């Protein structure tokens, strides 16, 4: 039986990129995903969201108790 020899210059993982040269060019220009919120805002935002949540929950319980 004849053995199949793979061409070592072609990586099977990159065949799609080899066929689509435009895609490989655009992948070089991709910038990494970053957070829309600065890291310093996380403590302030967490306290603010907890305060809003407590107000919403308290108003719901007051509404239900007075019904």
UniProtKB/TrEMBL annotation:
The chain crosses the membrane at residues 41-63. Its main location: membrane. It is found in: Membrane. One of its GO terms (biological process) is protein N-linked glycosylation. It is a multi-pass membrane protein. Keywords: Membrane, Transmembrane, Transmembrane helix. Belongs to the OST5 family. Component of the oligosaccharyltransferase (OST) complex. This is Dolichyl-diphosphooligosaccharide-protein glycosyltransferase subunit OST5. The lineage of its organism: Eukaryota, Viridiplantae, Streptophyta, Embryophyta, Tracheophyta.
